[in-house]
Design brief:
The complex is a heterodimer of chains A (242) and B (222). Chain A is α/β, with parallel strands linked by helices and 242 residues long. Chain A is built from 9 helices and 10 strands. Chain A has one domain: Rossmann fold. The chains are: A alpha/beta (242), B mainly alpha (222).
Chain lengths: 242, 222
């Protein structure tokens, strides 16, 4: 996907806590390694979106640390975000802008924006440059989100339920793209989902969250090799959250 | 640079809304003027600013509240932009549009007066234009501060108590002036209108700085 793979840093989340109304996120810790696809798995309201928003600084934490290399997510906010690509779950904004205008707007914030890559992604994902965002389906909007999140070649890609609302073909395309970004470009990918099949399909690692706590943080190949042949993710997940 | 990029984006997005807004304001003013010509001598200039005040609110709504609701602000927050840059850009684009809106209305007013269409108004002086612009930037600052510091669901409840508070301060201003021992200062402001305008701009600047500071600590940004 990219011309040159430079050494990328790990994202470290250390004892991250926050209270939002009745919901409490309890000292969540994990590490995202370059080249790995990690799934943040949990049912609705488990704390997946809050975790991603805390990392991005959209929600303010009570305590804990989030860092990427030497950059702290609050102290070095701009440098941190320059190295992160984020795709939010639903976006209805800038409906009057065309795809090309949005890409041009976002690109102006990144000194390392790869215009060639951006054009290739638009072509690969079948996105018409002159179409207005307001005329796009949810799936197409997610694809646009992927283009703007990937075109600055981030060290870490965070995605909040990227496949929700996508048709099967678009879903398969998106998942393949995530896998390629991680494995070919050494990008650390974290995507939240409640779809076990997707986790099984592309994730190298799974973090299971429930009621604001991390219940498991395991490599999927480890889990498969350590357990019996009859082991499956669904059973494992249900045992943990029940 | 980030601030300029954000301003340019908002100007481009709001350009479709701005012309209909001005046309609506002018139409609203003319409708009232044609229906009640006998009232106009007393209320003409106040009505013009009243109409522009609706513009101040709508500009804030379009640039801020609508962006919060459709999650555009959240998207901006994921870009390498600081919170202070987002806030300063929002105020800047609001002042730009409010200034343009007020300027167009005042220009139409001045033009109408020059052509003899409006005979009831004070002459437009630089000081009057500056006071008008300051007043509208101040009211827009008030709306924008509320929308930045509160979520839109809660924000709708803020202007009413705030309005009651402001009205109480105006009604009781003489007493407050004495209680705070500010008679000399207030007398100075009454004598020197320019100093009064400078004071209002200091309040506007302080509001922008306060918003930047508070939003660093706000639990959920957008």
């Amino acid at each position: 996907m990219t011309e040159a793979n430079v050494a990328k840093d790990s994202l470290i989340v250390d004892r991250l806590s926050a209270r939002l109304g009745d919901f409490q996120l309890h000292e969540i810790s994990f590490k995202l390694e370059p080249g790995q696809v990690t799934a943040l798995l949990g049912h609705n309201g488990a704390g997946k979106t809050t975790t991603l928003r805390l990392i991005m600084g959209i929600v303010r934490k009570d305590s804990g640390l989030v860092s990427l290399g030497s950059f702290d997510h609050q102290l070095d906010e701009k440098e941190f975000k320059r190295r992160i690509g984020f795709v939010q779950e639903e976006s209805f904004f800038y409906s009057g802008m065309t795809i090309a205008e949005l890409v041009a707007f976002v690109s102006s914030f990144y000194c390392d924006w790869n215009e060639d890559l951006s054009q290739r992604l638009l072509q690969m994902l079948d996105l018409p440059r002159d179409k207005k965002l307001g005329q796009l389906s949810k799936g197409m909007r997610t694809k646009v989100g992927l283009v703007v999140a990937l075109s600055h070649q981030p060290s870490v890609l965070l995605l909040d339920e990227p496949t929700s609302g996508l048709d099967p073909r678009a879903k398969a395309e998106a998942l393949r793209l995530l896998q390629r970004v991680a494995h070919d470009d050494a990008t650390a990918v974290l995507f939240s989902t409640h779809n076990l099949h997707e986790v099984d399909q592309i994730a190298d690692r799974v973090i299971i969250v429930d009621r604001g706590r991390v219940l498991a943080n395991e490599g999927l190949s480890n889990l498969r090799s350590q357990n019996a042949k009859s082991w499956n993710l669904e059973q494992y997940y249900l045992e943990l959250v029940s | 640079m980030n601030i300029l990029r954000l301003i340019a984006k908002d100007v481009r997005l709001q350009s479709y809304f701005f012309l209909p807004l001005v046309m609506l304001e002018v139409a609203g003013y003319l409708t009232y003027a044609l229906q009640m010509p006998s009232h106009m001598p007393g209320v003409a200039f106040g009505l013009l600013h009243g109409v522009a005040l609706i513009g101040d609110f709508l500009i804030c709504f379009r640039t801020m509240i609508a962006e919060e609701k459709n999650r555009a602000l959240m998207f901006i927050k994921t870009l390498p932009v600081s919170t202070a840059e987002i806030v300063v850009a929002k105020f800047a684009v609001n002042f730009l549009l409010v200034g343009l809106n007020t300027g167009i209305l005042l220009a139409l007013w001045g033009g109408g007066r020059a052509l003899g269409l409006i005979e009831v108004a004070p002459h437009l002086t630089i000081q009057l234009v500056a006071a008008g612009l300051t007043y509208h930037c101040l009211s827009n600052t008030f709306f924008l501060m509320i929308s930045l510091l509160f979520s839109s669901e809660r924000a709708v409840w803020v202007p009413f108590p705030a309005l009651f508070l402001i009205m109480s301060v105006i009604v009781n201003f003489d007493r407050i002036e004495i209680a705070l021992n500010m008679e000399a200062f207030v007398a100075l402001l009454r004598r020197d209108n320019q100093l009064f305008l400078v004071l209002l701009w200091i309040i506007i600047y302080g509001s922008v700085a306060t918003c930047c500071r508070i939003l660093q600590y706000k639990r959920v940004f957008a």
